[in-house]
DNA sequence: TCCACTGTTATATTTACTATATAACAGTTA
DNA sequence: TAACTGTTATATAGTAAATATAACAGTGGA
């Protein structure tokens, strides 16, 4: 698992770690029940304090994505992919609703929004 | 002009003020060349420091939405409709970037997102 | 000119958050 | 027992947000 963190970022380090692991779990780069690096090991790799890693793990556990067992380690929680996907679709729907509201209030045509959509989704392929 | 701020919010107070005034300008609740409340007056209303209000006004001036004249006050800048539209397009772009990120992380196809897009933009016509 | 308003600037302080270092404690397993 | 695991407590440093206070300067009416 390769995590890249930036201390010049406006996102806190613990959050960057949290996001990276969350993404890895969603992409199945981290499988169910797979053990995560120990807080100290990952802290060493990233040259940061183990407390910062622990903070990230704590957040992930609170969200239900990993399970930590004292003395053993932290493990990817059994996941419900359908549930995650449903939740994600809902998030996307909410964001698109916001887009619609802004475009409507500001007289920005559907066509213009669609063009932005195309650009963003194509340039990242 | 009624601005509601929350000190329990994760958004800084100066940013909440900034956003509220920005929205008021975009919605034409604040007209061109209209005088804004003085930093001290608004600070009194909101029971906060005038420095926090000044911070918000400074940001708005830097963005070109208001114009401050020492000794006189702060005024809504002559509206640059292009500027506002650019801002709105930027907001939409940011939201679409979020949509893209979520779809990418969650392995949701562009096609699925496009379908959601169609539904939302069509059902409101 | 005086006064009451306007914005500006400088300094110091408080609070919260992020991140760190260090040490000690406890569970797991070979 | 040794070497891992996670946990907890304490103290410290840096930063950002917000505050309080005071002094300074421009505007405009009485």
Automatic annotation (TrEMBL), chains A, B:
The keyword Oxidoreductase is assigned to this record: no
Top-level taxonomic group: Bacteria
InterPro entries noted in UniProt: Tscrpt_reg_HTH_GntR, WH-like_DNA-bd_sf, WH_DNA-bd_sf
Pfam families found in the cross-reference section: GntR
Keywords, sorted A to Z: DNA-binding, Transcription, Transcription regulation
Signal sequence interval, chain numbering: none
Transmembrane portions of the chain: none
MF terms (GO), sorted A to Z: DNA binding; DNA-binding transcription factor activity
Gene3D superfamilies on file: Winged helix-like DNA-binding domain superfamily/Winged helix DNA-binding domain
DNA-binding recorded as keyword: yes
Domain HTH gntR-type as annotated: residue spans: 11-79
UniProt protein name: GntR family transcriptional regulator
Organism encoding this protein: Candidatus Faecenecus gallistercoris
């Amino acid at each position: 698992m390769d995590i890249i963190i930036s201390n010049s970022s406006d996102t806190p380090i613990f959050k960057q770690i949290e996001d990276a692991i969350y993404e890895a779990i969603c992409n199945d780069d981290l499988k169910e029940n797979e053990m995560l690096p120990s807080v100290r090991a990952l802290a060493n790799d990233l040259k940061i304090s183990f407390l910062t890693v622990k903070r990230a793990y704590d957040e992930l556990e609170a969200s239900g994505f990993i399970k930590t067992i004292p003395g053993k380690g932290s493990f990817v929680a059994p996941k419900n992919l359908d549930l995650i996907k449903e939740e994600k679709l809902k998030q996307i729907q909410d964001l698109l609703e916001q887009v619609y509201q802004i475009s409507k209030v500001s007289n920005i045509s559907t066509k213009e929004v669609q063009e932005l959509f195309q650009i963003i989704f194509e340039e990242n392929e």
